[in-house]
Specification:
This protein is an alpha/beta fold. It has two domains: 188 residues, Beta Barrel (Lyase, Ornithine Decarboxylase, Chain A, domain 1); 252 residues, Alanine racemase (TIM Barrel). Helix content is 27%, strand content 23%. Strands 4, 14, 15, 16, 17, 18, 19, 20 and 21 form a nine-stranded mixed sheet that branches. The chain is elongated. The N terminus is likely disordered. The structure holds ligand LLP.
């Protein structure tokens, strides 16, 4: 299999074709014969070279988005949430752009460490960290650990000492409901994460952490939910966290120097969808933080944000090949492709909507709505409902789905042994394979008995 190509692929048909616009990466432009160019590379040739399904990741889009956060929040820590999508190249780009990394498992932590990501810029969180995970984090000298429950306090303290303290944040629940689906709303009481402010758990956790000489409580952490397109929930959460900082100061005589508002920044999946603009978010949050701290007579803590989706989602396009087309007696049409819920479980899990574009069609055919479905053995294996596609769509055609960079491959499964797709990166007219396609040999290698 080709693993690296330095040969530039197809060029745009005219010197300045009009970009496709969001939700496509900024580099996406129409190419010859109905192709789409991403980072100067034709998706059709990419699919032919590396096979489908193929995830094409635009390196410059990741870098641009990371840079936009750094520019918007120059005084803050911006941590990329690795759970959205992580591989070694991604860790390199994030480190290069001066961001930190939010990891939530030993696996993410080990991958980041193996990639050489600076450990001091890593934050580990999670509601169920094993003793081994905590030991690993200490051994690797992770910068910050987010304490999520009371049991973790003595467990972590046992791995530290007053002269080798661990910087920690306490994860609190501000009682704010936000996010695209109930499964991702983590800022409210009555779910598995963090300490409730309303029920007094947060103040008790703070008391216990402060009593441990090996733990240095740096601040508070919260994560409201995911795919939030409005700043209002963050402002409410911020108010409640600053109030809590003031109460901690009054009760314990300490002013905590950090405030982590988590991630959750929403992106566009369909043209015209709302999205959270980092610059606006930054301006509103910093103004509010300054004002609230002044009211409470607190020094302004250093802000941390943890965007995952907002950096990764718009940077990748998934490319599938149509395997069959079906027109049913009741007038519905299905385009079945060679991927599906094993590489993108989001429509099946959350009812998430996507836009689909045919690749390599000149656009003369009439369109009609198609349900784009996967190749898995479930009727719910859907990628997009009622996507307008050429009425004469046929097997062999290519379909591209933008905004595929977050929570697709990181949640991909081995369902039906289809194998997880390959990932290629594009930049300046060149394409290189980052992750090869998963094969049946990969499945068989894990089998050690019969
Ligand atoms: N920080 C913490 C503590 C988190 O739990 C998460 C996401 C993030 C940051 C990053 O959130 P983002 O900026 O990417 O929204 N599978 C779901 C999303 C689950 C998000 C879980 N936590 C989906 O596909 O919509």
């Amino acid at each position: 299999m080709t693993t690296l190509s330095t040969r530039p692929l197809a060029r745009p048909q005219d010197p300045s074709p009009r970009p496709l616009g969001s939700p496509w990466p900024v580099s996406a432009v129409p190419g010859r014969g109905g192709d789409v160019l991403l980072g100067g590379v034709g998706l059709r040739e990419a699919a032919e070279r590396f096979g489908t399904p193929l995830y094409v990741l635009d390196e410059d889009e990741v870098r641009l988005r990371a840079r936009a956060y750094r520019r918007a929040l120059p005084q803050a820590d911006v941590l990329y949430a690795a759970k959205a999508f992580l591989c070694t190249a991604m860790a390199d780009w994030i480190a290069d752009e001066g961001l930190g990394l939010d990891v939530c498992s030993a696996g993410e932590l080990r991958l980041a460490a193996a990639a050489g990501f600076p450990p001091g810029r890593i934050l580990l969180h999670g509601n169920a960290k094993s003793p081994e995970e905590l030991r690993l984090a200490r051994r690797l000298r992770v910068g910050r650990i987010v304490v999520d429950n009371l049991a973790e306090i003595p467990r972590l303290a046992a791995l530290t000492a007053a002269d080798t303290p661990q910087r920690v944040l306490a994860r609190v629940l501000p009682g704010v409901a936000a996010g695209h689906h109930s499964a991702v709303r983590t800022g409210v009481d009555g779910q598995k994460f963090g300490f409730s402010i309303a029920a007094g758990e947060a103040t008790e956790a703070v008391r216990r952490i402060l009593a441990q000489p090996g733990l240095r409580l740096a601040g508070l952490h919260c994560h409201l939910g995911s795919q939030i397109t409005d700043t209002a929930p963050y402002l409410t959460a911020l108010d409640r966290l600053v109030e809590l900082l003031a109460r901690i100061r009054d009760r314990h005589g300490v002013e905590l120097p950090e405030l982590d508002l988590g991630g959750g920044h929403g992106v566009r999946y369909l043209p015209g969808d709302p999205e959270l603009d980092p610059a606006r978010f930054a301006a509103e949050i910093t103004a509010r933080l300054t004002a609230r701290c002044a009211e409470h007579g607190l020094a302004v803590p250093k802000l941390t944000v943890e965007p995952g989706r907002a950096i990764a989602a718009p940077a990748a396009v998934a490319v599938y090949r149509v395997l069959s087309v079906k027109h049913t007696a009741d007038g519905r049409a299905f385009a079945a492709v060679d991927g599906g819920m094993s590489d993108n479980p989001r429509p099946a899990l959350y009812g998430s909507a996507y836009t689909v574009r045919p690749i390599g069609r000149t656009g003369t055919a009439q369109t009609r709505p198609f349900d784009v479905v996967g190749c898995h053995c479930e009727a719910g294996d859907l990628l997009a409902r009622d996507a307008p596609l050429p009425a004469d769509l046929r097997p062999g055609d290519l379909l591209a789905v933008p905004a595929a960079g977050a929570y697709h491959l990181s949640m991909a499964s081995s369902y039906n042994h289809v194998g997880r797709p390959a990932v290629a990166a594009v930049r300046e007219g060149r394409i290189r394979l980052l992750i090869r396609r998963e094969t049946v040999d990969d499945f068989r290698t894990r089998e050690v008995g019969r």
